[in-house]
Design a protein that fits this description.
The complex is a heterodimer of chains A (286) and B (217). Chain A has 10 helices and 10 strands. By secondary structure, chain A is an alpha/beta fold. Chain A has a single domain (2-273), classed as Dihydropteroate synthase-like (TIM Barrel). The termini of chain A are far apart. Chain B starts with a strand and ends in a 9-residue tail after the last strand. The chains are: A alpha/beta (286), B alpha/beta (217). Chains A and B meet through loops of A and loops of B.
């Protein structure tokens, strides 16, 4: 049972975490929702399209212009407060590695901290405990935030993912974070080349087998682009294929740009495995 | 004595959960059936006899689909009186059906309601289960006329061979009703008539016409 915000989700739920960037320079949307109102419109859109969670980010993942904690807070806190007021039911996640930012957004209603850089700031988990919010424990191979993987190698990438994410998850619980609010994320492309990301996708079941709910962040990423040799704007089908493969292996949360399409894929996987009722079955039964 | 009749269709679609999420056309049909059955029980029968065809294998418990659906409709309508089932082979010749109906009526010791599970042709359009057959619409119209007239003779007159060709699953049950209600007239009430999936679904209730006071015994 996953408990986030006002919601309890069944173990076989398939949930969408929609990406909402308050950044001028993120790779996929390139600033489209940097403006406050545009980002607010995006939230309304993704909620209507079936996202249970919104993941608000104030710093692009790749290297680029420096964004300090003060600027990150400026981009996220007022926005979180507004989303909380306008969408009391949606689960609000904030994509940050900094505990100062975590504290500020939790104070205005965030439900989940998405520590996408693998725990570089050990105090972030303490903030999650202090505010009673959830925490995503991600594998990034121990790299610094906002760095590109360079000649990283693992003896066994999945073993490293398991060791670090489960370690972070258990540490968080020992600090007082609600066990039902902790997720693990293999961190596709974070501290990983494409071979690594493909392998964690192929072996995702090993993460699921830990019992921690698994979040995957696949959307339009470079491992999809390199697998298919396609630029960012042509990676939707590859993303959705990876989504289906992860859903089939038992992932719970899917961080996504393309919410309506992802919802369709997850509903279809749910229907095939028997956890989501088909929408309209009449053929042969009249 | 038969105090009332309800005729409801019997598609597997009405089984719980079989459409996946609720389907509006099916829920509308279910609502009409439930209303008809509720009114049937409003006639205060001492028992209900479900009359239905013998198509099996749709549900655990060994009873044919028609009877399972009939029991579910009765339960949904809050039925508290005893319920019996009278299963008829869907291919029974008309005389056998009429005889079975007469025997059923003769054996009723108490005021009884009949819940007849029956539907019409399955060849009403290009997308119908049995594709389009031009004879389907007139056949169903004849069924509907007889039901709406409260007139058992119209059901007795249905052509069993044509019914089989048109994939009618309710002919035998309707003709059991015709035998059971023979010589009597009823006041009919329509609840639904439609073919959202190419099969004709009539939902009709019959209530025994009350004798006027001076000829009451």
């Amino acid at each position: 049972m996953l408990r986030l915000g006002r919601h309890e989700f069944a173990d076989d739920a398939l949930l969408i975490m929609a990406i909402v960037n308050r950044t001028p320079d993120s790779f996929y949307d390139r600033g489209a929702t940097y403006a406050f109102d545009k980002a607010l419109d995006r939230v309304a859109e993704v909620v209507a399209a079936g996202a249970e969670i919104v993941d608000i980010g104030g710093v692009k993942a790749a290297p680029g212009d420096e964004v300090d904690a003060e600027e990150e807070i400026r981009r996220t806190v007022g926005f979180v407060e507004r989303v909380r007021a306008e969408h009391p039911d949606v689960v609000i996640s904030v994509d940050t590695w900094r505990h100062e930012v975590g504290q500020a957004v939790c104070a205005v209603g965030a439900d989940l901290l998405n520590d996408a850089w693998g725990g570089p700031d050990p105090k972030l988990a303490e903030v999650a405990a202090e505010f009673g919010v959830g925490l995503v424990c991600t594998h990034a191979g121990g790299v610094e935030p906002r760095t590109r993987p360079h000649r990283l190698r693992y003896d066994d990438v999945v073993a490293d993912v398991l060791r670090r994410t489960v370690g972070e998850a258990e540490r968080a619980v020992s600090l007082g974070v609600n066990r039902n609010g902790v997720l693990i994320d293999p961190g596709h492309d974070f501290g990983k080349n494409t071979w690594h990301s493909l392998e964690v996708t192929r072996r995702l079941g090993e993460l699921v087998a830990t019992g921690w709910p698994v979040l995957v962040s696949l959307s339009n990423k470079d491992f999809v682009g390199e697998a298919l040799d396609l630029p960012v704007e042509q990676r939707l089908l590859g993303t959705l294929s990876a989504t289906a493969v992860c859903a089939w292996q038992g992932a719970t949360v899917f961080r996504a740009h393309n919410v309506a399409e992802t919802r369709q894929v997850l509903d279809m996987v749910g229907a095939i495995r028997g956890s989501t009722p088909p929408r309209r079955v009449v053929r042969g039964l009249a | 004595m038969i105090v009332g009749v309800a005729s409801c269709p019997q598609p597997p679609l009405l089984l719980p959960g079989l459409t996946g999420a609720p389907v509006p056309e099916v829920e509308r049909l279910r609502g009409a059936c439930t209303a008809a059955v509720r009114d049937l029980l409003g006639g205060r029968p001492a028992e209900v006899v479900i009359v239905g065809g013998d198509a099996e294998g749709w549900y655990d418990g060994g009873e044919p689909l028609s009877i399972v659906l009939g029991r579910q409709l009765l339960a949904a309508a809050g039925c508290t009186v005893p319920v019996r089932a009278r299963v008829v082979a869907a291919g029974s010749p008309t005389p056998d059906c009429l005889a079975a109906g007469r025997a059923l009526a003769a054996g009723l010791a108490r005021p009884a309601a009949l819940l007849v599970m029956a539907d019409g042709t399955a060849r009403r359009g290009l997308k119908a289960p049995g594709y389009l057959d031009e004879r389907a619409a007139p056949f169903d119209a004849a069924v509907e006329r007889a039901l709406l007239a409260g007139e058992p003779a119209g059901l007795a007159a249905l052509d069993a061979c044509l019914a089989a060709e048109l994939l009618v699953a309710g002919r035998a049950a309707w003709q059991v009703l015709a035998g059971a209600a023979e010589g009597r007239t009823f006041t009919a009430r329509p609840y639904y008539a439609g073919d959202p999936f190419g099969v004709f679904y009539p939902v009709v209730g019959w209530r025994r016409e009350q004798p006027t006071a001076h000829c009451a015994q």
